[in-house]
Give the backbone structure.
Amino acid sequence: MPNAISGFSKLSKSEKIEWLLDNYFEDKKSARSLVTQYWNSDEKLQSLHDEFIENTITNYYLPLGIAPNFLINNKLYTVPMAIEESSVVAAASKAAKFWLERGGFKAEVISTEKIGQVHFNYDGDFEALYQFFETVKTKLISDCKGITKNMERRGGGIINIELKDKSTDLKDYYQLHATFETLDAMGANFINSCLEQFAKTFKGEAETKLEGNIDIIMCILSNYVPNCLVKAEVSCPIADLKSKDISDPKLFAEKFSQAINIAKVEPYRAVTHNKGAMNGIDAVILATGNDFRAVEAGVHAYAAKDGKYSSLTHCSIENDNFKFWIEIPLALGTVGGLTSLHPLVKFCMELLEKPTSRDLMQIVAVAGLAQNFGAVKSLTTTGIQQGHMKMHLMNILNQNQATKAEKATLVEHFKTNVVTHSAVEEALRDLRMTIDN
Ligand code: MEV
């Protein structure tokens, strides 16, 4: 076990790597060359990446894949997806093509309100606090002018501030609960800066105008944004669901709908069901430089909004018509943050034809719906492993250092054979033996 280290962040990148090698690796040479092998030879580009976070030692690659043929509100999109899971991009592309042939996806932004809170303790009378809040509310907003003027010029800003009495949940606990419109910015910095200014003004004014003590605990945006909502849907006559994998569309629609109903009532299934949607959502969020942890946290909270964790997607069968839709909260940005810094994020934004945050909300919701459709369609027809293992085949071949020629032969072989880890290893062994002999 190495000794604790102080001042690690002040070491140079090479010194940090040497410290790691000295303390954790037996074969220092190969560990060093692995880490440095992923450095970009363009020093400017490398230093850009180094500076995204602290203590960067190298780059961690994820594949950036492309799912074409997404028809959303009659506009065709080619969707970038950054993800490591083998079958996700293939499933998204397949679902996009399926719905392209059936009218495409419809998407709609329902609301775009973001939330931030100043959490504080107060030991006095609520009525006095409320009266005080009413008198300082305008000043809370006007003291933020320096922060809000650009956003206001573009049509956004602070929407409202409310005082909330939370003292029945927690002794002496109150909040300033504020709502914001941040347009094409995700808005975290904007909101947090406003909140910190609210706290300063609130506390400052309270010193002379309020009996009782105010203690600011913290100021932070909320990643739960139930009023920053987007909906995406697909629909078609049941008969039109007929396709290569769907021979009996009525039976398919019924089984599919029952699978959604199961995810609605059964949290164990709902989590996996929603994970399937998040495969698509996170991949686009990452490719477009947005904060997937914020989105994950907010979306799952929304899935539990009625007191029980449930499906994010819904299905109806009415008058021989099949409809499938998703409704999720998404606080996204298409300006600021990584979106203007990371060269591949800029590339992805251009690929999506420079979307506004509202456009991106719709694209991401559609990616989630498509992914969930693909997963539930496989689960209720062929089973998930067929497609999954076909895609996983390449990973198994790579783990076994298969050559290009071996890969080509075995991909062909497994078009008609069941892929399992051992079957692939056995086929590779057999192939190598035939070649050796
Ligand atoms: C795997 O990444 C995602 C699925 O488990 C989703 C689902 O079960 O619906 C296939």
